[in-house]
Write a structure and sequence with these properties.
With 172 residues, this protein is of the alpha+beta class. 35% of the residues lie in helices and 25% in strands. The chain contains six helices and six strands; from the N terminus they run αααβαβββαβαβ. The chain has a four-stranded mixed sheet with strand order 3-6-5-4. Strands 1-2 form a two-stranded antiparallel sheet. Helix 1 packs across helix 3. The longest helix has 20 residues. It starts with a helix and ends with a strand. The relative contact order is 0.22.
Length: 172
Amino acid sequence: MNATNIAALTAAAHAIRRARIERRVIPRISGTHRLEGLDAAYEVAAMTTRARLEEPGRRVVGLKVGLTSVAVQKQLGVDQPDFGLLFDDMEYLDGDAVPMARLIQPKIEAEVAFVVGRDLGPEAPSWSEFLAALAYALPALEIVDSVIQDWKITLVDTIADNASSALYVLGH
């Protein structure tokens, strides 16, 4: 990766981070920062993750798979799932008040949260290995939120924005 590409990725990550902090929308970063391809999008997401992890006490507590529904993929004009991280400050429990002031243009989705009870190792597990590693499942609500104006996202935009992940509520 050359210095120009790194500068563009860094600028895109900074734009997303500022928009989240300031709770404002921005135009598609895929256009304004000429981001192309999934590798570039995931690198921007990694940059914003590193910045979040520099905050005192911040840690990753889980993973998310988004855009798994064909209907949602069609609605947003994408053709595959995306992946993001869940941070400790994103979690709320059943009955907690969700601070709407943290959000920009939220949407809510019913989900199932799987709690993995043991490490799976570096290789992709078989289906039976994956099922054997699950400790339990919980009902959950995911609150997705995009910094991209009017949710006019491309797959690159949503990946770069941590799979449009904002908050989640765990049931019991």
